[in-house]
Write a structure and sequence with these properties.
The chain has about 300 residues and is mostly helical. About 80% of the residues lie in helices and about 0% in strands. Helix 8 runs antiparallel to helix 10. The termini are far apart.
Length: about 300
């Protein structure tokens, strides 16, 4: 009892700056950054040039709020297992910087604000897709799939694909084949992006009772699945060339970075089957670089004359 009192006394008094930082952490800002990286280039492709600056900014703000709301809901739902995992012990609901009620009110408020914002400043199709993204991540992934199946990240990753549909809809007011291909690229990319991370934090997930693929299957099996999805991702990225009439820049980047991405996944698998030390985070960080370069090329290609 005395130790608990001393711990509470040792905790610094909350300040406005720390409170704001806690709310920001609740939104998972690094995830938001990646989602915005794919949204802006999609809007340029949809416009076949530069969309209006205000539309671009309004869509990015709405998308950031939508993703932040989903992240906050996820932190609230997973607060029990976050306390068991070393990787997540710094999250605001674990440290006590925020109460459960504060997090839940913030998540609902940010979600409603994102839908209204997109509906007013872009269009209601984009707003509806934003609502769909939140529901997919919160209900389909966090509540239903995550703790029940090793395929959680495959189908739960659908929510992370929604920003390209939102960005396209914000510009055109409808959907067509190019955004569907972009959706599929991110859908297929998510497993080879996330499964290497789960390999590194396998013990964390096992302790929390989360059946990530790395927990229920061996390293070689995970490595093989990463390879298969990487090949599918690259093949899908090449489909965009004829469907969206992509030019030389995108074609070159998709091919070169695709070969590099596939090579890295094969390297991970080869190390795994030889039972030597593997470096899954090399594939994890490499996958982020791959997707970022691919979408930068998507954003630049329509602005070039070739």
């Amino acid at each position: 009892m005395q130790a608990a009192v001393e711990t509470r006394q040792a905790r610094p008094e909350p300040t406005l700056k720390r409170k704001l930082a806690a709310y920001l952490a609740l939104t998972k800002p690094r995830v938001i950054e990646l989602l915005l990286v794919v949204t802006a280039p999609t809007m340029i492709l949809a416009q076949n040039g530069l969309p209006s600056l205000w539309l671009l900014i309004a869509t990015l703000i709405g998308g950031a709020m939508s993703a932040g709301s989903a992240g906050a809901f996820n932190c609230y739902i997973d607060r029990d297992i976050d306390r068991l995992m070393k990787r997540t012990q710094g999250r605001p609901l674990v440290t006590g910087e925020l109460t459960d009620r504060e997090a839940l009110v913030f998540a609902y408020g940010l979600g409603v604000a994102s839908i209204v914002w997109l509906g007013v400043f872009t269009n209601w199709l984009a707003a509806a897709l934003s609502l769909g993204a939140i529901l997919l991540y919160v209900v389909f992934y966090s509540l239903i799939l995550k703790r029940r199946t090793a395929q959680n990240i495959v189908w739960g990753g659908v929510a992370g694909c929604m920003p390209v549909l939102i960005g396209w809809a914000a510009v055109t007011g409808d959907l067509s084949w190019p955004p569907i291909i972009l959706f599929l690229i991110i859908f297929l990319w998510t497993p080879p992006h996330y499964w290497p991370l789960s390999m590194k934090y396998k013990d964390d997930y096992a302790a929390a009772g989360v059946p990530m693929l790395a927990v229920v299957r061996g390293r070689a099996q995970v490595g093989l699945q990463v390879i298969l999805y990487a090949w599918a991702t690259v093949a899908c990225s090449l489909l965009l060339i004829p469907i969206a009439d992509m030019g030389l820049l995108y074609s070159s980047v998709a091919l070169v970075t695709g070969v590099w991405f596939i090579y890295e996944t094969h390297r991970l698998y080869n190390l795994a089957i030889r039972h030597v030390n593997v470096s899954p985070m090399r594939v994890f960080h490499g996958s982020i670089a791959y997707l970022s370069l691919l979408f930068i090329a998507i954003g630049i290609d329509p602005l070039l004359p070739f």
